[in-house]
Amino acid sequence: MLEIKDVTISYKERPTVKDFSLSLKQGKICSIVGESGSGKTTVIRAVLGLLAGGGKVTKGDILFEGKSLLSNTKEQWRKLRGTDISMIFQDSGAMTNQTRIIGNQFVEYIRTHKNMTKKDAWDMGIQMLERMRLPSGDNIMKSYPFQLSGGMRQRVGIAMAMTFQPKLLLADEPTSALDVTTQAQIVRQMMELRDEYRTSIIVVTHNLGVAAYMADAIIVMKNGKIVDAGDREQILNHSQSDYTRNLLDAVPSLGGVRYV
Questions:
Q1: Which residue from 152, 97, 110 is spatially nearest to 129, judged by alpha carbons?
Q2: For residues 100 and 64, what is the distance between their CA atoms, to the nearest angstrom?
Q3: Global pTM value
């Protein structure tokens, strides 16, 4: 489904991600792990054509269902984003307009991609919110983002991202702004979405525990390069990378037991 081939991403001719490759099949979850500044978010922004500050892919190719994304026009990107490929941000509440109620923004998002009445779009928004186990979807639609908790805002973000049942979901640190209990709930819901819709997911995280729990494959990055890659079993139990082993050793243990 998604093939990233030896991609180098540069800002002002200076490479920040070098020779990155990834292959993702339908219904699989891949986690990109690494410290801050390692290039994780840059990779998924490149997949969605959202590189900021003049960043561009200077080498390699990104293929989605066999077609290069690098040649997309603005109109092709508009049709692709939010439908076949969606993204969840670190704090979905920060990506919404705080002066407009959730419902107005949700309706606008739906009607951008689908020809329907405001009422039908409103009802569709309620349905998606309730699929995310948000009680009283109509009340959520009538609320401002700042009136919701962090976990509720994140569920709103996931509900919007999954409205059109995307084939690929990009998640940028989707749990880092949440408490541990809510993190677990969000992770479980993302995995349920994968099981229900066969959505492929790329999760960017610095939390190796999240990666260990949900990912089929794990890529470890440092300083813009891949330093380790493989399936979950290989990375967690048989890695030959000193950096990966250091990350694993840094995971807290409980009663002498490390749960990754």
A1: 152
A2: 34
A3: 0.88
